Amino acid sequence: MAAFFNALDAGLSPVVGPQVDAPDLAGHFFTLTGGSSGPPKVIRRSAASWGHSIKVLGERLGLGPDARVGVLGDLTYSLSLYAAVEALCCGAHLHFLPRAGLNARGITHLYATPTQLRLIRQTAPDVTHVISGGGPFDPATAAHVATVLPNARVWRFYGAAETSFVTLADSYTPANAVGAPFPGVEIEIRDPQGQPCQTGAEGLVWLRSPMVFTEYASGQSDSTRVENGWITVGEIGRLGRNGFLFLTGRQDRILTIADTSVSLDQLETGLITAGATAAAVLPVPDPLRGYILHGFVEGSVPCPPALKTLTSLPELPRLASGKPDYRALERLLP
To answer: What InterPro entries does the record point to (predicted)?
Structure first.
């Protein structure tokens, strides 16, 4: 791995094939959470926890010596680092590149967040697979990707730095679902008393998986709980009859405003669906209503009734992970 990162620092595109000895799967490594609403947390996970998904996706995506994998994000964050390690383990060519470099490098497989995909302006017909997660992938994003990456099959996933992959979705996934359980993952929806919910009922999303992290090495999350081999990161959702997962949003971003539950995540998704390239919604405490909501967008979209203000910016402040920097946006609140 040291040689891998040294090669990246030198601007090279290292290739590791199956003839190279596999790393010690009993070992551990460290990576960062997204850090949208606070300092990124350092998580510790085993090499084996990624080995499972590398095997599954490597076969499904056809990763091998003919594949050229492009990574748009910062390698300090888990999605970009995972994509790089997966490419090397499968013997593919790895390119850490700007958005404008897709054609110059002949990229065939692209790992990117939905926000990063919405910022691509150059058509790249060589891209055959897109693997995307870390934010809402709405119909407008899908239409944009179909235009700029016309030959790409899109694989959407839901997951977290702590859980790795939870679900996987493609063009056959029902609208608004984040996908079916990733191979090897069990999902259970539980009520506030910790009991399993009936199919279709909303509750806290719990899962059991060979891909979960080991522990937080630095920082903690009140939303993350581990019980008897099951883990939750605080997402609220429901399971459909065919096992597809539908998400409402993170529990800590569902607020009571004027006696009504409001999901900030769903409001952001609505702004993106309306045409914003990126969106963020921030709450400000209010003694009468509970909270007043302010929104920020890239682009020009109407202000929905749920927001008191909607500010259009040339570019939203972002973290290295590509997610909105909520702490920076707090300094812009009216």
So the answer is: AMP-dep_synth/lig_dom, ANL_N_sf
